[in-house]
Amino acid sequence: MAEVTIEARKLKFKFAPVDDEGRESELAGMSENTFPVYKVDVIVQFYRTEVLTGQEAKNFTKNDITPNPKAESIQRLYMRVLQLLFRFRPECHYTVPLSENVQFPMLYEWVSPVMSVYMRMCQFLPLCHVYDFSLNDLLNPKLKRTLTILSSIQNFLHFRKQRLETTAAHQQSFRCDMDRLQAYTRQIKEAEKKIEKLTTIPPEQQAEAKELASALAELTANTQREYQDVTAMNEMVAQCKTEIAEISQKLTQRKVDVATLKDEISKFKSQIVESPEELKNEMERMKESVKSIKMSKELAEERLVELQMLVQCAGQVEAELQVLLKQLQDLQISMCKTNQQKEEVQRLAAMIETLEKELKSLSSEEAQMKRAFAMKLDKQSKHQIRRQKKKEVKDQQVKNIYEQYDKIHQKREEFVKKMEESNRETKRIKEKMQELREKCNQHTQKAQEIYERLLSTLEQYHKRIESVVVDTNADALKMKSQF
User: Can you give the chain as a three-state secondary structure string?
Assistant: First the structure.
């Protein structure tokens, strides 16, 4: 029994090595990958800076990969990759749920982390376009194979980093859009307040505004009347000017007639040879014509004075009209100002409409982003609840595992005691061997039977180990689904 237990302690799982032909076919399949295979120096530098930290990054060198990759360093590197991506800590690989009736639990101390890393890497590597990961890549890694796997993981980490940067940029743009939306809403509120101030008259000035409106209406009516009077006066002035022009023409004609008469008189004086009676008659005629000319001249002068008076009145009317025109210009300037204010109000209304449209678009975008954010929050809450449940289940499983381990340790101690007792018995038996040589022939058959039983028990033990391995795989899959 002692020799059997010692051999059982020394047992280890041996996996069948992959044939060279199968390995060549796998490498041929991997050579058609969609990612570049990096050099060893690039891979070492990347994993030292991006994955490993502290003393592990300092100790990880090129010798860990070439010429023959070290299984321990490769396994540790895979654990750190899983920790970086899935927050799966390395100590979680060593906790495997076991049943109470498992014999020799110390055999699982070496298998549990390797199987856990293998199961997680089998789930993760298809994301990196590596579909043929095997246990031999962990236990007996090859150079080309490890380089392709590490290159695929490096390519995936580059892609993950780019996606994180783009999501951060989208979040930053969303924050900028939200800030712009808030600024637009503030500007719209300020514009609405300004429009209210411009359109609404304060109650203190409403009476004055009404008085000004009535005064403006009266002024417009008076200006229309004065415009009519001015047009009538202009017509009168035009008629007077035409009459003055006619009278001036008549005067010039009369002056021309007087000049011609004087010339004729001078001619007649030089030719006077007639009788004094005719001269007297001519003189009387001439005196009558002069009197009539003087009378017409006086009438023309009186008409001219009247016309001058009318012109002076027209000048006064023109001055009054200029004053009225100034008032009208002032009113026109005020009307222009009011029109400008109306145009500003219309422009502000157009700006408000555009801003309202932008606000509606931004509000729709905000609603979409809020929905997406709410969905994310719901997913996060659901994930948190699931994690909490998984954590509780995990804690319960850990407690059960610790209880199982305590029971296993107790059984182990009992088994050790039994082993010590058996060793003592063997010593006693060896001392009695000399006395029992005669009885050895009788007990050889019994020993043969015991030997056959031991072989059968060993075969059963190996079968039980295989079943335990299958159970561990199933438990690992369960743990995977739980995590």
Answer: CHHHHHHHHCCCCCCCCCCHHHHHHHHHHHCCCCCCCCCHHHHHHHHHHHCCCHHHHHHCCHHHCCCCCCHHHHHHHHHHHHHHHHCCCHHHHHCCCCCCCCCCHHHHHHHHHHHHHHHHHHHHHHHHCCCCCCCHHHHCCCHHHHHHHHHHHHHHHHHHHHHHHHHHHHHHHHHHHHHHHHHHHHHHHHHHHHHHHHHCCCCCCHHHHHHHHHHHHHHHHHHHHHHHHHHHHHHHHHHHHHHHHHHHHHHHHHHHHHHHHHHHHHHHHHCCCCCHHHHHHHHHHHHHHHHHHHHHHHHHHHHHHHHHHHHHHHHHHHHHHHHHHHHHHHHHHHHHHHHHHHHHHHHHHHHHHHHHHHHHHHHHHHHHHHHHHHHHHHHHHHHHHHHHHHHHHHHHHHHHHHHHHHHHHHHHHHHHHHHHHHHHHHHHHHHHCCCCCCCHHHHHHHHHHHHHHHHHHHHHHHHHHHHHHHHHHHHHHHHHHHC
